């Protein structure tokens, strides 16, 4: 199955203002975020990407724009199910104002029980994102083969919830995961299980490019999806 390159959008005006943006329209990349996005094509240059999938929100589309300009052949797809969590009445509010809200403790300590008034629950957020990735994995594999690599630009809580799913972690533990703006999280999916290859990576991504196994590796390969002793599946 494919390798998914998850990119969190670059730093936004809401990030620097300390605002919970949610789905508030008009939230763009700030100057630093634009620089991060401009560096993305070089960071992903070694990867044979076959498609780009984006949250519909402006900050994600702006993050992918330099990559699409550098690779005009790369098709772009918009996926509503990887949009930011719908924080409802919390959207657009200062994070400092939300600290004393009783729900904030639930969000941090028991997120599977958290539901935002006028918005959605965190369980629903994770479920839609996981469904989207699984459907895109099947589509990408059908169109480009099992070793295909594709990029998906989304949001912090979405990426954290996808990592939790990939690791078999309960959603209540997902706040232990962190992904900086414009960082890359890579998950290689197999028939039996996913493998987390990168988490919040801001460095060299060339080792993520698929490669043909050596003859020795082919002879000693075990059951599909099993990790090698002393290492992990997908290690270069």
Task: Explain this structure.
It is a single chain. By secondary structure, the protein is an alpha/beta fold. Helices cover 35% and strands 15% of the residues. It has helices spanning 13-17, 31-43, 58-70, 95-98, 102-109, 122-144, 156-166, 215-220; strands at residues 3-8, 49-54, 76-78, 149-154, 184-189, 194-201. The protein has a six-stranded mixed sheet, with helices on both faces. Strand 5 (184-189) and strand 6 (194-201) form a beta hairpin. Helix 2 runs parallel beside helix 3 and helix 6 packs across helix 7 (156-166). The chain is globular and about 55 Å long.
User: Roughly what fraction of the amino acids lie in strands?
Assistant: 5-15%
Structural class: alpha/beta
Helix content estimate: 25-40%
Spatial gap, N to C terminus: 17 Å
Q: Round the Cα radius of gyration to an integer and report it.
A: 18 Å
Q: So how many helices?
A: 8
SSE run: EHHEHEHHHEHEEH
Number of strands: 6
The average pLDDT score comes to: 89
Bulk shape: globular
Strand order of the largest sheet: 3-2-4-1-5-6
Largest sheet: 6 strands, mixed
Low-pLDDT regions: 216-236
Question: What is the strand and helix layout of this fold?
Answer:
Layout lengths: L2 E6 L4 H5 L13 H13 L5 E6 L3 H13 L5 E3 L16 H4 L3 H8 L12 H23 L4 E6 L1 H11 L17 E6 L4 E8 L13 H6 L16
Question: What key phrases describe this protein's structure?
Answer:
35% helix; globular
Give a short synopsis of this structure:
With 236 residues, this protein is of the alpha/beta class. The chain is built from 8 helices and 6 strands; from the N terminus they run βααβαβαααβαββα. Strands 3-2-4-1-5-6 form a 6-stranded mixed β-sheet, sandwiched between helices.
